[in-house]
Amino acid sequence: MTSGPPAESFERFRAYLRFLAQCHLDPRLKGKMDASDVVQQTFLQAHQALAQFRGQSETQLAAWLRQILARNLAHAVRDFGRDKRDGDRERALEVSLDQSSSRLEAWLAADESSPSQKADRNEQILRLADALAKLSEAQQEAILLHYWHDWPVAEIAGKMGRSTTAVAGLLKRGLKHLRRQMKAGE
Question: Is 154 exposed, middle or buried (0-12, 13-18, 19+ CB in 10 A)?
Fold first, then answer.
């Protein structure tokens, strides 16, 4: 990738970036913008700045795209909140996205260190993000809140306006679907 990645390779990261955006998009903005909007803006900016990418690997490309996504999320908060630019908030979002990416990798990683194991782990991360994207919005929300943000089922039920039994069903069916998708990809 010495001359920069082809713009088509961005598409491979769509579900991954959407997952990160869903995790970090301010809930106050839900009615005004969607995680897909932020990802699309990220791809547009990445395409425009393609000549500036100096990385050599897919991991570096993912990190570069995460930086652009973090800036876009910070700008969305600023624009919709009518606040002045807050560099600390933008930096905090970038760090938070990196930590989210690390948590996602930790879900899939044991003590792997060889290049082939790292490549396999990156593939698993992308497959997990793709599998999450195939869930219903309700299942995605329940899984993200419960397993990513550690919310209890009762709190998720209150937020979603559903019973705890309904949320438990969303979690069970969503996990079943994720396991099936991950197993099919092996």
Answer: exposed
Burial class (CB in 10 A: 0-12, 13-18, 19+), 139: buried
How far is 67 from 177, CA to CA, in rounded Å? 30
Compute the half-sphere exposure of residue 72: CA atoms within 13 Å on the CB side of its CA. 26
Exposed, middle or buried by CB within 10 Å (0-12, 13-18, 19+), for 174? buried
Going by C-beta distance under 8 Å and a sequence separation of 6 or more, which residues neighbour residue 24?
Answer: 73, 93, 96, 97, 100
Map residue 139 onto helix, strand or coil. helix
CB 148 within 8 Å of CB 23: yes
Q: What's the CA gap between 20 and 126, in Å, rounded?
A: 12
CA 102, CA 129: separation in Å to the nearest integer?
14
Beta carbons of 137 and 170 less than 8 angstroms apart: no
**d(Cα 127, Cα 140) in Å, to the nearest integer?**
15
Residue pLDDT, tens place only, 59-101: 888 889 988 988 888 887 777 765 444 445 555 555 555 555 5
The alpha carbon of 40 is separated from its chain's Cα centroid by a whole number of angstroms, namely: 13
Residues 8-28: b if buried by 16+ CB within 10 A, e if exposed: eebeebbbbbbbbbbbbbeee
The answer to whether 153 touches 171, Cβ cutoff 8 Å, is: yes
